[in-house]
Amino acid sequence: MCFFLIFRGKYATVCRAVHKKTGVHYAAKFVKKRRRNQDQMKEIIHEIAVLMQCSDTSRVIRLHEVYESTTEMVLVLELAAGGELQHILDMGQCLGEAEARKAMRQILDGVAYLHKRNIAHLDLKPQNLLLAEPNSCDNIKLCDFGISKILEPGIIVREILGTVDYVAPEVLSYEPIQLSTDIWSIGVLAYVLLSGFSPFAADDKQQTFLNISKCDLSFEPEHFEGVSSAAIDFIKTALVVDPRKRPKIKDLFEHPWISLKTSIPGTLNIHATSTETSQPTPKSTPLAQRKSFACLTDGGAPTPTAKSSARTPFCCPDTVNAPPFADSAVHMDI
Known about the structure:
Elements: E1 2-8, E2 12-18, E3 25-32, E4 34-35, E5 38-39, H1 41-53, E6 63-68, E7 72-78, E8 83-84, H2 86-90, H3 97-116, E9 119-120, E10 129-133, E11 136-142, E12 149-150, H4 169-172, H5 180-195, H6 205-214, H7 229-238, H8 249-253, H9 256-259
Antiparallel strand pairs: 1-2, 2-3, 3-7, 4-5, 6-7, 8-10, 9-12, 10-11
Helix pairs in contact: 3-5, 5-7
């Protein structure tokens, strides 16, 4: 194969790989076996095992081959030519409601596949949602299963992991991780896709965690103009603090906003607004300045340079300098 660099990080590198004989393009993820003098083979093998379990669905990025050297593992993955859904948010935009609904249906489809196999993704976010084709959300794929968990019956898993803005309250309180932990992230995703903002982010991690724990949620009219009451209700339905009271994936499929039969165009229209004009009632006190997220296990969110009560567009510091619709088939928190 020939390799062309896409992204280089501290612990891993992603390259576009071209098969010399067939000309087929793939994404090759080079992962170092050791990080900070710690053996990472268990985590790498786990991700490979999950991807192999998901080989019969189009909603999960496909693993084609695995190679090993003395220092690293190489995962040869399906190439998603449209890049990360995150890039749309990096441009300070959000999806129109019809496009957001289409995206959420596919995300639910992928998560339903995982949950049937007792797999919790635990890091659902726009960076880990890939577009098969540029400028189209007709075919969205889930990727990056590095912190996913296979929840065996009778085994309790407690661990602090995830991405700050998307992490569920039970993770912060060190309660058992459940499949419903993903449901919380789905609610945050819907909010972000519809508004372009994170619902809980504040000027520092501590305030963000407090907002999450209290489900301190608001729907400012200027950011949800034209968004239907059904969409607002979908978000509220998923964002329930008690994981035992959250809906299951099948319940979200049956929610009126998702099950609504409507014609949805196939091309992204990031400036579009829905004709479903029922307005939500905003909270009187807006949340603090919206800041981009960071991995909980990587030191948390960046420190802002100034305090402000104004909301700023939701973007990711890890990808904001990347070209729109980059060729990466997998995003890595590295």
